[in-house]
C-alpha cells in the first residue's frame, strides 16, 4: 500500500468530499472547512468539522468562524483533527478557544481484497445481520456492556434513525445493509450471538461509489474477548464491503483494537483526535 497516496485519497473522498452520514443531516462547505450539521437536532446527527485546509495566517479566523457557528447552534460540536492536518499547532489553537481534546485514535486502513474472509466466529457463536427493532436494541445493549457505560442518547437516536428505516430490507437482501440514508449513506450492522444472547456487535457505514467503507462500534462483552469474535466481525464486514465495490475499509482504532487490526493487515495512516466544544451550562453524560 502506498500510504501517502491512500491517505490523500481518504482526505479527498471521505473528508473533503464527505456526504451526510445520518438522516436529518447535511454537509456544508464553508470557506476552508467542511462540516456536518443536523437539520433536526432531535435526530441525533453528529455535528462538527470533518476536514479543513488552514494555514498559520488564516487558521485563527476560520476557527473563530466555526466557534461562532457552533455557539449559534447551541449544541455539542466536534472538530475532528488528524495529525497530518495543517497548521501543525491546530490542536493548540482549538484548545485556546475552548475545544477539549478527547482520547486519540489511529486511522487504520486495509484493502478489502487483502483481508481474509475465512475468519469464522468461535464454536457456539453465530453472526446475524441486524433485521428489526429488537436487534437494534440488542446492538445498543451489547455496546453498553462492551464499553462499560450507557450508549450516549445521541448515538442511540442515530442508530434507530439509520438502522430502523432499512435494516429489515437489508437483511432480506442477505447483505445486512440498511436502506440509503440522507446523502446516500447506508449502514450494515451485525450481531454475534451465543445461546441467543448478543455478545458482540459492530456496524459499517457505506457511501455509494466511495472507495472506503468505515468500520464502527466493534465491541465484545468482556467474558467473550480473546476468542476471535472481533476478527470474525471485521471479516464479515470487509467481505460485504468488497462485494459492494469498496476497495478499502478503515477504522478509527483505539489502543485495544489497533494491535488486532494490525495483525489482520491494517496499516496506520494518521492519528485522529476529536476536539469537542460544548455549550456552557449544559450537562452531558459521561
Short note summarizing the structure:
The chain has helices spanning 3-16, 59-73, 90-96, 133-147, 153-172, 229-243, 258-264; strands at residues 25-30, 33-38, 48-52, 77-82, 100-101, 105-111, 125-129, 185-194, 197-207, 212-220, 248-253, 267-277.
| Residues in β-strands, percent | 25-35%
- What's the main sheet like? 12 strands, mixed
Give average pLDDT, whole number: 86
Shape estimate: globular
Catalogue the unreliable spans.
167-183
SS-based class: alpha+beta
Span between N and C termini? 38 Å
Give the helix proportion (percent range). Answer: 25-40%
Descriptive report:
This protein has helices at 3-16, 59-73, 90-96, 133-147, 153-172, 229-243, 258-264; strands spanning 25-30, 33-38, 48-52, 77-82, 100-101, 105-111, 125-129, 185-194, 197-207, 212-220, 248-253, 267-277. It is α+β, with helices and mostly antiparallel strands and 286 residues long. Strands 1, 2, 3, 4, 5, 6, 7, 8, 9, 10, 11 and 12 form a 12-stranded mixed β-sheet that branches. A hairpin with a 4-residue loop joins strand 9 and strand 10. The longest helix is centred in the middle third of the chain and has 20 residues, at 153-172. The chain starts with a helix and ends in a 9-residue tail after the last strand. The model is unreliable at 167-183 (pLDDT under 50).
